Amino acid sequence: MSMVNKDKPLNFTFDGKAYQGFDGDTLASALLRNKVKVVGRSFKYHRPRGIMAAGTEEPNALVEIHGAGVCEPNRRATTIKLFEGLTAKSQNRTPSLAFDIYAFTDFLSPFLSAGFYYKTFMWPKAFWEKIYEPAIRRAAGLGKLIEQPDPDNYDKGFLHCDVLVIGGGPAGLLAALNAGRSGKRVILANDDFILGGRLLSDPIEIDNLTALQWVEKSVAELRSMDNVRILERTSVYGAFDHGIFGALETKTDQIGAPGARMVLWKIFAQHSILAAGATERPIAFANNDRPGIMLASAIRTYQNRFDVKCSDKTALLFNNNNALSTISDVQIDTRMGLHVTDTKGRKGLRSIQLSDGREIQTDCLAMSGGWNPNVHLTCHQRSRPVWNEAKACFVPNTDTLPDGMQVIGAANGEFTMPVVFDSVRRASEALGVNTDDHPNTQAAPYEVSAFWHVKGKKRAWVDFQNDVTAKDITLAHQEGFSSVEHVKRYTTLGMATDQGRTSNVTGLAILAEATQQSIAETGTTMFRPPYTPVPIGAFAGPHKEQHFKPTRLTPSHKYAAEIGATFVETGYWKRAQWLVRGDEKGWRDSVDREVITTRGSVGICDVSTLGKIDIQGRDAGAFLNKVYVNSFKLLKPGKCRYGLMLREDGIAKDDGTSARFSETHYVMTTTTANAVSVYRHLEFARQCLFPDMDVHLISTTEQWAQYSVAGPNARKLLEKIIDPEHDISNEAFPYMACGKVTVCGGTRARLFRLSFSGELAYEIAVPTRYGDALIRKLMEAGDEFNACIYGTEALGVMRIEKGHAAGNELNGTTTASHLGLGGFVSKKKDCIGKVLSQREGLVTEDSVRLVGFVAVNPTDKITNGAHFINDGAERTAVNDQGHMSSVAWSPELGHYIGLGFLKGGQNRKGEELWAVDFVRDNHIKVRVVSPHFVDPDGERLRV
Amino acid sequence: MIINHPLLGPRDASEFVYLGDAKLMNRPNPKSETALQDFHDYMYLRDNPAGEHKELWFHEQGDRSWLIVTRNTISHEITHVELARPSA
After folding, report:
1. In the structure, what pLDDT confidence band is assigned to residue A777 with cuts at 50, 70 and 90?
2. Which of A176, A380, A780, A848 has the fewest beta carbons under 10 Å from its own?
3. Residue A808: what are its φ and ψ, rounded to 5°?
4. Which residues of A touch B55 (CB under 8 A)?
5. Nearest to A836 among B31, B43, B84 (CB)
6. Is the pLDDT of residue A138 over 80?
């Protein structure tokens, strides 16, 4: 009884030809059912290759799946569940599987040994990148990458359980049953699309039931338990710290199907039971890669699970008694001194040559070199498996398993059913769960005698996927590579999608022989996640395109969009950059008009993105004294002050203003970019450095909509909005005042008389939900003044005109003194960063200083990023005098202005030198001036 | 990784931001005569032990407390977690 439903045929195509399979088939079983022998060309030699395995270990049958106008390369035909309309194509052949022009590489094989490209394509050197490498890449390799967006959706999820059982074969099923019956929360993850594992391929009686009956009964019981969740088609690809596992669930193989195609699970498990089974090994002998030479276990899988007979005459090459259940006509037992010396048949096996001289006509050779436990997940936290001589395989090192993990069944090197079930009992008992219902079964003990390869002159494949032969490994050893990790990288043994599932152990056994070491001494390469390939799209999940990161919209966003704003991304925020009015042609038209309107009448800018931190407590002032260079403790309630903050290494961290509302209450603002890191820094200072202070912090950035209202008419405009009982005249509410007011008939608001633009200006804040209403009210009230909204560009122009430092200047390398703010640093008190800011190298006379620049020829356009070079000096890095950090066209002055860091700049006013910009090839003679270009005495601020 | 928060129980490490050696809590006395050297050592000289290490983690996507986490840098085993400020 097979696991395919012959009443449900499914149509599919391979390389354009139509075929039919059945529900329950994999693409591989369906191809074999249709007698398709050659399914791919090999990596390097372009040898015709057929299906070798039946599971995730398949090295040859890598295909493309097509759909929704794109294709997915390198999919193993053995893991694709057949679906109606499946379109698959072979890879690495030009133009077709039957005729591949690169097949000549097979005849060049004497020149294509391990590392051939390191040796052959040495000269001339310049040819490597332009000629050799592209040509090799065309000729060799696996599937082609599609360079189009992935049309599919992927999802992510989190799961928690007491016991995660990895593998749905007999061991995994019983382990899940035991834990489930005891009420544990169980997750059973099975990478196949049906449960049962090897029982579907090697049916034996369990409890007087057939294997399939036992599987069906067990699965039915598991499904009936609410505390058990079965994840089908789910590969656990990584075992991470503290019982966290990564798993990939495949919902469908179809490209472009509705819903999520795959789900990436993060599973938090108290305990895990690894029941991942084992993988059969091939044997290396001459020309062992012909289509028709398969793993014995795969032939049984196709026969029993899929009802596909691979051949009418099968020969069996084996070194263990497990292989004997394969139906075969000729037995070649290496334990009896027999082996295969060569094979014939270019596009499919025709005959095999035996060591006793016989030549046997056959199109199918089953090979079994013994079994390798799938130990990978036991090694993801640096455990190394240990060699078991009797079983001729590596088994998990039970002393160094990941926390909470136990290994059972074939994954632990138990290859006989009664012993498998005993290992489940042990693991279940260790978890304290019920093992009363223990299945009875019988089987002969596993007997194996290591046999790795047949020596000879011809090529004997070890790694089919990467075309690595036994000779390549011995050659690597001759050339001095004796570490298994080096041999892997030199020969490419065990790389790519199968990660050496079928080849690693054989490869290192051959290396051990060459180095005359034992296999235990030779050791294995490191196993790292992922165990199976995980598409990048699955890691990205839904976080792509506009959802790649969050988008934060300002309270005035809707209004700004309505009136023609262009938005710029600043961190997660979208801020209005400029707003087009009338027939303005380019951004400069809008920005110039916004600056002129603001300086001439009144402009409004959304500054809600600035970080806002509410600071309260008896020691709030003392706390601010510690985090700012200047003093805040003596600031009077109802006043604001500019503050500069350093990192402990003395470099400027951030700047902003803090307002004091009462003895115990301050509100700090930070720059937009640093809002998160300043808050983190403040909490560090509060909790870790000054834990005795009575102070509490909370971020209120998103709680307040805050608008800057700037320009000579700012007060007149605000007087129309702010309720009349609040006097905001210059006398009652002078420069740097702050206070609580109400607007529009009773809505609570905060008012700050702060100016970044250099004009008479206020910032008014209302609870965020009133932000949209307030911006509309402000613009309505501003109509008589021809008020405008200004964006971040105009904001930038005005701050450069005023010589205020911003992100370009607070760039993580500058100190208070570099910024010309050395005088701000209080001599009377300690603050974070003060001591180290006094380091010799940071305070020398010739260290850089922020100054202003104008072009000597007023029509010249200066550029930021330019470096300063003294007049007459050679334009080289040695003569570098600093760099231009910010540049703007000043509508007020009618020419370009710049801010920049110049060595000893404080003493160089009036000097002329060159701003050299090799990137834009723009070298301009500039004059050093004060950075305060507009209203240097700040008279406009105080009217 | 999972960090067992003293107030909130086991939390995924992705909720936290890592800072580094918990010795950063021992800010030197700025009034000392050797302050410059002390701050230099405090800022730049760190032990890099293979084994137990006390380090600072910030529960940024949580209750915003700074934690002192004792973690084995070889095995990632976390043996102790405490609040940096006992009454955070």
Report:
1. very high
2. A780
3. -65, -25
4. none
5. B43
6. no
Contact B85/A689, CB-based, under 8 Å? no
User: How far lies A939's CA from each of A619, A712, A805, A943, in Å?
Assistant: 35, 12, 20, 7
* Domain ranges within chain B, ordered by starting residue: 2-83
Which of A243, A381, A683 is facing B64, going by the closest CB pair?
A683
What Cα–Cα distance (Å) separates residue A59 from each residue in A52, A114, A281, A462? Answer: 7, 19, 12, 11
Torsion-angle region of residue A887: left (phi > 0), alpha (psi -120 to 50) or beta? beta
Chain B CB contacts of A835 below 8 Å:
28, 30, 35-36, 39
Average pLDDT over residues A759-775: 98
How would you class A253 by CB atoms within 10 Å of its CB: exposed for 0-12, middle for 13-18, buried for 19 or more? buried
- Test B36 with A834 for CB contact under 8 angstroms: no
DSSP state for residue A209 in the 8-state scheme: B
Question: pLDDT for A730-757, tens place per residue?
Answer: 999 999 999 999 999 999 999 999 999 9
Residue closest to A710 by CA, chosen among A656, A750, A759? A759
Contact of A199 with A216, CB cutoff 8 Å = no
The amino acid at residue A552 is: R
Q: Please report, rounded to a whole number, the percentage of residues in chain A having pLDDT higher than 90.
A: 87
ipTM over 0.95: yes
Specify whether A170 is located in the same domain as A219: yes
Tell me whether the omega of the peptide bond preceding residue A542 falls within 30 degrees of 0, making it cis. no
Domain B2-83 indexed as CATH 3.30.2270.10: yes
Which residues span the domain enclosing A475? Answer: 461-517
Query: Does one domain contain both A36 and A47?
Result: yes
Chain B residue whose CA is closest to A685? B25
Give me the helix-helix angle, A417-430 and A170-181, nearest 10°: 30
Shortest distance, CA B48 to any CA of chain A (angstroms): 20
Residues A251 and A390 reside in one and the same domain: yes
Say whether residue B35 is in contact with chain A using an 8 A CB cutoff: yes
Domain check: are A623 and A661 in the same one?
A: yes
A192 touches A29 (CB < 8 A): no
Mean of all residue pLDDT scores within chain A: 94
